Amino acid sequence: MSKISEASPSIYESLRQAIIEQALKPGVKLPEDGIGETFGVSRTTVRGALIRLNAEGLVDLQPNRGASVAVPTIEEAHDVFEMRRVLEREVMHRLSKMDAGPIVRALEKHLAEEKQFLNNDSKRSIRLAGEFHILLAELTGSRMLANYVNEVVSRSSLILARFAQSHSAQCGLEEHTAIIKALQDGDAGSAIERMEGHLHSVQARALLEPDTRREEKVTDILARYAASEFNAGTPK
Fold first, then answer.
1. pTM of the entire predicted model
2. Binning pLDDT at 50, 70 and 90, where does residue 177 land?
3. Residue 232 DSSP class
C-alpha cells in the first residue's frame, strides 16, 4: 500500500481545509512532530497526508528540509487562472445544455450558505466561495472535469493568500448570483460571459502584493481544526 493511501483522511482534510481557508499561509512550515502531537498520531501518518497534499500542489516537500505550504510564483498564478478560465468555460458550456432545475436548486442552496457566513466567518466564507466553483463542475457529472476544477480552485486559494488585497466578499457573492441566473435562463453565452467576468475580477483582486501579516503558530491553527466538527465526521 502506498504512503498516500495510508494518509489519515481527517489529518489530510484538516490540513487541506486550513490551507484552502487561508489559515495556513504560503511558506508556513509544517512540522511533522507538531502536527502529529496536535492530532495524536504518528509522524508516519502525518507524512502520508503531507505527501498527498504535495501531489496536489498545496504543500512543498523538500528532502532534509521538511514540509511547508506551497508558495506560488506570479507566473504560476497567471497560469492557474488561465487554466481556470478554460476549464470553467467548459463547465458553463456543459451545464447550459442540461436541465436547469436541479442545477439551480443545488447552487441556490450553496449560495444561501455563502450568505449565512458572509459577515460572521471569513475563513468559512473563503472556502465556500471556492466550493461554489467545485460544485458547478460536479454538477456536470464529469468526475475528470470536477477533479481538474477542484485542483485549480485549491491552488487559487494559495494565490489569493499570497497575493492578497482586502475586498468585500459581497462582490463574489453577487457574481455567483449572476452566474446562477444565466444558467436558470438557459443562456450559454451569458453564463460563459458571467463566469469569465467573475474570474477576471477574482484574478484582478488577487495578483497584487504579497500578504505580510503576522501569522499564528501552526500548531495553534491546527488545534482548532483537530477539534472541529469536521474531524468528528460531519464536514461542512
1. 0.78
2. very high
3. G
